[in-house]
Design a protein that fits this description.
heterodimer; A: alpha/beta; Rossmann fold; 3 domains; 24 helices; B: Alpha-Beta Plaits; 2 domains; five-stranded antiparallel beta sheet; 9 strands
């Protein structure tokens, strides 16, 4: 039986397991939205901005491990997705974006709301497609989902011409996929595995790096077991926090610019780095010339372009982390590294001494204490989405997740405005989990229009707003590196209480440290979205900090309380 | 150092754009790039010549392979391969100079393909070196214009040299 391109689209999405989509309709997708009414299985979440839709789909994908879907019309609808596409691309998030396009006979004529969306999205998608005929719909959707979720996952965009939505086709079933040029590798070659095993056997001071790839390949348990069996500590990247439980004795927490000092010291003093599914971002390495100088490097990644891109690998293993670890496991005997772990424990004590949360409460509101209280109240079991900036780094330091896929943040792109929509998407994906958005006042206002989406769709997220009336991270850089010359970083904020009230969301303002716990309880007990407006210390800095280009072990540390007074 | 890469790509609209965009975005410079059909209508073949250190070339190769529409890439530098370029050279030639220029062309097995009152067009096929040498010898007569097709390359004999997709030949060629 013949079906329209639009019907084939929705049926293909259902076959791919899609149950929810985010977006906004418009001229070039009206036929598709009309056909959608006949598929009540598909839940459509109408957002207030396409950027929100893109980031919700991303949050959905990161929380669930499934492919997220965002839909927009042509022209401005499509370009509004762009920041969200870039966030998904930088953090290897599987999202399929569907954009409307003008009728195929009008392509290239500067028709109303026409934009070259395949051209615009080319450098920020894993792949993209344009559909000009209904015959192509089923195959394109199948290929798009396969590419998005396999190998190193990433966003795929489908630009769908309006005439192809309306016209009919006999190609209605999802076809077998055969992509000649796309064969993600699984196994690394045997001789390389043997060399890697040799290095692991010889190592006295090894460190495992768990990157986002560990979560993406579903290898969190395998990595934990491998680390336990070989008694190797695990340093995590921002995106992989929770890939092994934060409370695990081998966990070193986060590495890098605002990472734990003992973690960075362990890296700098190690003799072997086993890097799993991470890409040596500049926020992770500091000065490359002095980076882990005594360490051999084993780099495991499914994407060969990451090998020798930033840090030269002594052994590169291109393949799936799960498979590679299974292959290598029999080649390495159980080992102990007690002296090494003892040394790291010493460094750790020194860090604990500087911990602000451990210091006497001076009645003022410090973000680390707030996040620490949220962590305690939720026992580290909540799913946390953050925005970008100081609060993000504090969240990474003080919300220590016990489960994978529980810390959702824009890492590579560093896109402010991500927190609220990502939390909405995550809660839609995991309705039974407690979801917190930890946001700053700058980033929150970039996507605040989608607070009403959460209220309207009854998406029960709790928002902890760290309101310091500054673009805090920029302010910190200006304080540290630009002689405290504050340039365009002060924020005159709206009355967030009225904003919450106008949206129908719960609200409480918190001014003193003594009110934190009660406010968190209020948010957890109040049905629907709740905004907690924490009036935090305005000019607090995130410590430790590795200044750009400095050696990883040369961190700016928190001044001790005595010096401060 | 110059590297010659051979890429087999799907014959679809936009593939050349993806390759060009990759070079632009990663700030790689292309010395020459040729695209043409192969014996399989679904597949086109690119020969890409780039200047760079081996490690850099390896990165380019990996990035090319990563493109979904690229079926295979091989670096034929240092392998037994035939590489050829084609050039058309329009050289100033008064009637009394024609014989001399034609004789030069013959030494290089080049051919005169057009004769005009004041100029000749010479067609030459060969390696970079050979074309450069003829070019140098013709320069004193006055070169009006020159065009080169860009290098094409192929491995000698039975060597398939294909590394990224084992068994590819059986599937597509």
């Amino acid at each position: 039986m013949k079906k329209t391109g639009a019907e084939v689209l929705w049926e293909s999405l259902i076959q791919e397991g899609v149950d929810v989509m985010f977006g906004i309709p418009g001229g070039a997708v009206i036929p598709a939205f009309d056909a959608m009414l006949n598929y009540p299985k598909l839940r459509f979440i109408l957002t207030r901005h396409e950027q929100g839709a893109a980031m919700m789909a991303d949050g959905y994908a990161r929380a669930s491990g499934k492919v997220g879907v965002a839909i927009a019309t042509s022209g401005p609808g499509a370009t509004n997705l762009v920041t969200g596409i870039q966030v998904a691309y930088m953090d290897s998030s599987p999202v399929v974006f569907i954009t409307g396009q003008v009728a195929s006979n009008l392509l290239g004529t500067d028709a109303f709301q026409e934009i070259d969306m395949t051209g615009i999205s080319l450098p920020i998608t894993k792949h993209n497609f344009m559909i000009t005929s209904p015959d192509e719909v089923a195959r394109t959707v199948a290929e798009a989902f396969y590419i998005a979720r396999s190998g190193r996952p990433g966003p795929v965009l489908i630009d769908f011409c309006k005439d192809a939505q309306v016209a009919k086709t006999e190609n209605v079933d999802l076809p077998q996929i055969s992509l000649l040029g796309y064969n993600p590798p699984l196994h690394a070659p045997q001789p390389k595995l043997e060399r890697a095993a040799e290095l692991i056997r010889a190592a006295k001071k090894p460190v495992i790096f768990a990157g986002h790839g560990v979560e993406l390949s579903g290898a969190t348990l395998e990595v934990q077991k491998f680390a336990e069996r070989n008694n190797i500590p695990v340093a995590m990247t921002l995106l992989s926090l929770g890939s092994i439980p934060s409370s695990h004795p081998l966990s070193l927490g986060m590495m890098g610019m605002h990472g734990e000092a003992y973690c960075n010291l362990a890296i700098q003093n190690s003799d072997l780095i086993i890097a799993l599914g991470m890409r040596f971002d500049d926020r992770v390495t500091g000065n490359l010339k002095t980076y882990a100088p005594g360490a051999s490097k084993i780099h495991v990644d499914i994407d060969p372009t990451e090998i020798n891109k930033i840090v030269m690998a002594d052994v590169s293993l291109v393949g799936d982390i799960k498979t590679v670890l299974a292959d290598i496991d029999p080649m390495v005997p159980n080992a102990r590294h007690d002296d090494w772990l003892g040394q790291i424990a010493e460094w750790r004590k020194e860090t604990d001494n500087r911990d602000i949360v451990a210091q006497p409460n001076n009645g003022k509101l410090h973000v680390p204490q707030i996040i620490s209280e949220i962590w305690k109240a939720t026992k580290g079991e909540a799913l946390v989405a953050t925005d970008v900036g100081q609060h993000q780094m504090w969240a990474a330091q003080y919300y220590q997740p016990e489960r994978p896929r529980s810390f959702i943040t824009s890492g590579g792109a560093g896109s402010m405005g991500f927190g609220l929509p990502a939390a909405i998407g995550a809660k839609v994906a995991m309705p039974d989990r407690e979801v917190w958005a930890i946001v700053g006042d700058g980033g929150f206002q970039m996507t605040q229009m989608d607070l009403i989406t959460a209220v309207h769709q009854k998406v029960e997220i709790k928002i902890a707003l760290m309101n310091n009336h500054f673009l805090g991270m920029v302010r910190q850089w200006q304080e540290f590196f630009f002689e405290k010359r504050y340039s365009s970083v002060q924020l005159r904020n709206p009355d967030f209480g009225k904003i919450a009230e106008a949206h129908g969301a719960g609200y409480r303002r918190i001014d003193k440290a003594g009110e934190i716990q009660a406010a968190i309880e209020f948010a957890r007990k109040t049905p629907g979205p709740v905004l907690l407006d924490f009036q935090v210390e305005q000019e607090e800095a995130v410590y430790p900090m590795v200044p750009t280009g400095a050696d990883l072990h040369q961190m700016i540390r928190r001044p001790t309380q005595a010096k401060k007074a | 150092m110059q590297h010659t890469l051979i890429a087999l790509v799907e014959n679809r609209p936009g593939v050349l754009n993806r390759v060009a965009s990759l070079f632009r975005r990663r700030n790689y410079n292309i010395e020459s790039l040729t695209v043409g059909r192969t014996e399989n209508p679904a597949i086109s073949r690119m020969t890409i010549v780039i200047e760079g250190e081996p490690i850099e070339t390896a990165r380019i190769e990996a990035n090319l392979v990563k493109l979904v529409n690229i079926i295979d890439v091989q670096d034929v530098t240092g392998q037994p391969a035939i590489a050829r370029d084609l050039a058309l050279i329009k050289v100033k030639a008064k009637p009394n100079q024609r014989a001399e220029i034609t004789a030069l062309a013959e030494i290089f097995r080049a051919r005169v393909v057009d004769v005009a009152p004041e100029s000749l067009i010479i067609e030459i096929t060969g390696t970079e070196d050979k074309i450069e040498s003829l070019n140098e010898l013709l320069r004193p007569f006055g070169i009006v214009e020159m065009v080169r097709a860009g290098q094409v390359a192929m491995l000698r004999g039975g060597a398939s040299g294909i590394r990224h997709t084992p068994g590819l030949e059986a599937k597509v060629l």
